[in-house]
Amino acid sequence: MAPTAAEHTRKAVGLAALDASGHLSPLAITRRYRAPPPRSRSIRVETNPSRQPTRHFPVPTPQSPREATVAAAGAALADSSDGRPPLAAAPSLDWTRPRRSSPPSNWSGSNDVNRSGGKPKSRCTGDDDVVIKILYCGICHSDLHSIKNDWKNARYPMIPGHEIAGEVTEVGKNVTKYKAGYRVGVGCMVNSCQSCESCNKGFENHCPGIIFTYNSVDVDGTVTYGGYSSMVVVHERFVVRFPDTMPLDKGAPLLCAGITVYSPMKYHGLNVPGLHLGVLGLGGLGHVAVKFGKAFGMKVTVISSSPGKKEEALERLGADAFVVSKDADEMKAAMSTMDGIINTVSANIPVAPLFGLLKPNGKMVMVGLPEKPIEIPPFPLVATNKTLAGSFIGGTSDTQEMLDLAAKHGVTADIEVIGADYVNTAMERLAKADVRYRFVIDIGNTLDKAAATTE
Predict the structure, then answer these.
(1) Which of 112, 120, 154, 136 is nearest to 30 (CA)?
(2) End-to-end CA distance of the chain
(3) Residue 20: what pLDDT?
(4) What dihedral angle (degrees, nearest 10) is formed by the CA atoms of 148, 151, 156, 160?
(5) d(Cα 77, Cα 79) in Å, to the nearest integer?
């Protein structure tokens, strides 16, 4: 289908300014936006005194008289004495907020987020772009970190979501891999420099100019928004296709959780039949790592601080063994038995005892992101030639390879499907680890209804 000159209608589940309790505001469902012209993109946010966003709005460099006025308003709000924007005194504020990615050659459009009037809009389709109607989006734990600004890099307003599954509705004239109706997905990236050594080797995830699916600044200075919304426009290179046998709802979390554990298993030699793989942590990442380990023909042992997960690990997920990390006898019995460990834990835990589980020359690969630095005792590493490594998602070609292998072996995520109006509750439950093992928002069937009830 040829690119259209028309703008695309879009609604959002989680356009996050945070309230005082740190929750995504349900009113975010009704906030509307559309793409502005390049370099002067803005959003109009309808505010509510009871739903106050945090003070982390970045103040842009003025590019025009209108933008200068906007920047000053933003600075005044950010500098308010109590740290909270005085929204009651400003029921409607213009913020210079960008949309996403480099403007295509045939780009046109205007912007004004207006709840009372028009529809939310996204920019026109570029020559290399794929327009995707979002049907499902997984909720990753990093979404919770991001909206709470745990990593001190949040840009508000924010639309989270990087486990996007949907259907192609339109493609640019240069697109050859995808057609309208294809079942596709978008993971953690929507752009990169596409010319560095890493990009040329298929490791866009290692590109110094990587552009994340949300809360990231693109090459033209625009900010990206994610999948808790009705549609997304993405460069062809960063779109993957779902195999026909894979359900979209159960496949969506693989675009983050799946590639996050698949990539280190591939590149660190932890995909060889007969080897012994330890999986530390049984959550959104860990349960998928168990499934891939078994798909590779490995012996898999789950290492967890929660004895109550033993039955589920062994009987439901198919792990071969279970070790309670707080049980000294069980840890001792497992010493020097594992060829590698995939560490999925994001909490700060002692890692020295875990090195003892590895055989000489064994590897521990970290894919979780603890908030505080970890302490690494050198002797357990040096004495038996062990390796501590890290791994960060994967390139688009590896992501497609992962999906194809997952479909072949029946690997999907264990999910709880929720409606768009349940997002705030899901975030509260996720903070308590009360999910087995991934929330997935049913965008296609619930977003319009949720938006209608709040308008």
Answers:
(1) 120
(2) 33
(3) 54
(4) -70
(5) 5
Burial status of residue 360 (CB atoms within 10 A of its CB: 0-12, 13-18, 19 or more) = exposed
CA 229 – CA 11 distance, rounded (Å): 5
**Cα within 13 Å of Cα(353), Cβ side:** 18
Residue type, 356: G
Long-range contacts of 314-317 (CB under 8 A, 24+ apart): 317/282, 317/287, 317/290, 317/291
**What are phi and psi for residue 396, nearest 5 degrees?**
-65, -35
For 221, residues 6+ apart whose C-beta sits below 8 A from its C-beta are 39, 98
| Residue-wise pLDDT tens digits, 260-270 | 999 999 999 99
Instruction: Measure Cα distances from 138 to 100, 163, 185, 202, 257 in Å.
Output: 20, 5, 11, 25, 10
Looking at per-residue pLDDT, the higher value among 58 and 279 belongs to: 279
Residue among 254, 185, 188 nearest 410 (CA): 254
Rg, C-alpha atoms of the chain: 23
Give the residue from 121, 140, 71 showing the smallest Cα distance to 344: 140
Q: And the tokens for 29?
A: 């469902």
Which of 213, 200, 294 is CA-nearest to residue 256? Answer: 213
Element housing 321 (H / E): strand 321-324
CB atoms within 10 A of CB 187: 28
Nearest-5° Cα angle at 147, 142 to 150: 70
Q: Which of 160-164, 268-272, 366-370 has the lowest mean pLDDT?
A: 366-370
Cβ–Cβ < 8 Å for 44, 257: no
Q: Which of 135, 163, 161, 129 is nearest to 233 (CA)?
A: 129
Partners of 12 in beta bridges:
229
pLDDT beyond 90 at 331: yes
Strands 129-139 and 438-442: antiparallel
In the three-class reduction of DSSP (H, G, I as helix; E, B as strand; rest coil), residue 217 is classed as: strand
